[in-house]
């Protein structure tokens, strides 16, 4: 492992929540932090400049989708993702493994890797631990994820154990192909909803010289109680000197629960995808813009919000845009939702630094979960 890039500046006295920073060649990312998802080298409905104005410190792009389109030849020609999309801050890329398992109708898992057919044209491809790192090297990733198998949470214990062992072997091969880039590589912990299997796999992955430790597979159908139990077990197990990343799960209540157990980094499509479907977030819970109560409302999406959308437009106008199918509704709702998430993370960090995270969490959830849509 190279020199430490993650520094912890505060630990909350009441739980495992901590505040820190991750330092990259392209800038600093405060933690705990939420990373907007830019699957195809774009956060839908937003320009990179608008993301910067919101305070986005890092974005996530998808290895699987960019590998298939526009492809690595074009990526090499244009000089990587940062230049391609005019983004000069850090980029996290996932391995593409989850998409292979969720999108491809044909896939075959072997020790070598995963053979699959493209969801675009049916062409056949092979992803290996080595090729996945090479793809992310070409993309210019600041954080690269290793290839892992992401099995359904309800497979039997014997299959889960074989899957975990294979993921560990793939992780070892990924590190052997590291070279000088990507800048940082995170290992991925699997194990379904069993705290015992999760901690066992965490011990395997944690013994390898990864820069960070990611928790995968917690967004594939788990019950809330199992989710908390797994996070609690991992909070007691994971190396506290490295950042912890919860992959792909990010309702506000999920984030706050994970922060309690020492998770530092999050990504999820919820704020952007739900915006396109008309949902917007408020302190009193999520709302839907199509509701009749908004038809003539001169109020902003949220009274206390200082985002561009709330400062300039009413619920009535945004609802009109949504009902008319206008693209601007997606832009305004996405702007608000990302502001809501990033502002929440700033508040979370400040609460940890003040030693009162649990108080903040309790107050936030009391208001948020008590809203009419819960």
List the main descriptive attributes of the protein structure presented here.
16% strand, alpha/beta, single chain, 374 residues, 8-stranded parallel sheet
Could you describe the 3D structure shown?
With 374 residues, the chain is of the alpha/beta class. It is 42% helix and 16% strand. The protein is built from 15 helices and 16 strands. The protein has helices at 48-54, 63-68, 72-78, 81-85, 97-103, 129-139, 157-176, 195-206, 224-237, 252-260, 270-276, 308-312, 315-323, 327-353, 357-368; strands at residues 6-11, 18-24, 27-31, 33-35, 59-61, 91-93, 107-109, 114-117, 124-127, 143-145, 184-189, 212-215, 244-246, 265-267, 279-280, 287-288. Strands 4-14-13-12-11-10-6-5 form an eight-stranded parallel β-sheet. It has a three-stranded antiparallel β-sheet with strand order 1-2-3. A hairpin with a 4-residue loop joins strand 7 and strand 8 (114-117). Helix 8 runs parallel beside helix 9 (224-237). It is globular. The termini are far apart.
